[in-house]
Each structure stands twice: as C-alpha cells, then as structure tokens.
Amino acid sequence: ANAATPRPRRRRPRRRGNRKRVARYLRLKSWQRYTETWAVLERCAAAGLFDEGAILEKAPRVVSIGGGPGYELLAYDVFREYWRDVGHADDASKAAWSFDAARLATPPPPKKTEFASLDLQPSWVEYVDLLGYE
Questions:
Q1: Mean pLDDT, each 10-residue run in order, the chain (134 residues)
Q2: pLDDT at residue 122, rounded to an integer
C-alpha cells in the first residue's frame, strides 16, 4: 500500500435496541404513528368499512407490517371501540366520547380479533406484548 494513501476508517456497527434511542423514539413517534393511523381509520369509517357487516367491523385478523411497538394496532383497537360506541352519532357525542386510559395499566383482556405486528426489529416484541398484541 502507498504510504500517502490514508487508510479508510472502519465504521462501528450501530447497536440496535439502544435504550435511550428507543425511549426517545417511543416518546416522539408514538403519537405521530397513532394519529396517522386514526386518520386513515376515520376515512375508512366514512367509506362504510366499519358499518354493520362491513370488513373492518369484525375483522378476524389485523396485521401491522413494519409495526414497530404496536401503535397502529392500538389505534385500530381503540378506533373500533370508538366507532362501535358513537360511529353514527352526532358530533357532540363523538367529541364527548373518551377512552379510559387506565385500562392500559392493567393486563389486557383476551381479544376476539387476532393482532400481529410484523417487524424486522426484534426488540419491539416486548412493547407489542405489553400492549396485549402479538
């Protein structure tokens, strides 16, 4: 090798699952992913996909591809409950509806729908499990 040519630096591989990065991601991206999914679900509901007998009303399986920590699954689960309660009600009833966040502090009840989060990053499994999904 020529002494004048600098040797290329080796890059250290990035460690996946770094706790600080994960915590930051969970704080910053959680609501973004949740609200983006909610907005899509509102459009689906407006198109009638959550009406009685429609495909999303009683979907046997819900899968999030590249699902990360499961926020899309949570958004679907909560939206379906919201739509069942006040889907065709007036705007005042929809605005008055609230999700009992305390239910997230207890182990989730068994679900009638099969939920799955498919992601290449294995460290998300812990978070998806904590939300009560697969």
A1: 60 59 76 89 90 81 83 88 85 81 68 83 83 78
A2: 84
CA separation (Å) from 108 to 26, 60, 70, 120? 20, 18, 14, 25
Q: Which pair of structure tokens corresponds to residue 66?
A: 């590249």
Q: Are 55 and 80 in contact (CB under 8 A)?
A: no
Distance of CA 35 to the CA centre of its chain: 10
Q: What is the pTM of this model?
A: 0.71
> Which pLDDT score, from 0 to 100, does residue 41 have?
92
- Tell me which residue of 77, 93, 84 sits closest to 52, measured CA to CA: 84
Burial group, residue 87, by CB count within 10 angstroms (0-12, 13-18, 19+):
middle
Cα 122 from Cα 134, distance rounded (Å): 12
Rounded CA-CA distance 70/33 in Å is: 9
Q: What is the DSSP string of 69-133?
A: TSHHHHHHHHHHHHHHHHTTS-HHHHHH----GGGGGSPPPPPSSEEEEE-S-GGGHHHHHHTT-
Helix (H) or strand (E) holding 62: strand 61-65
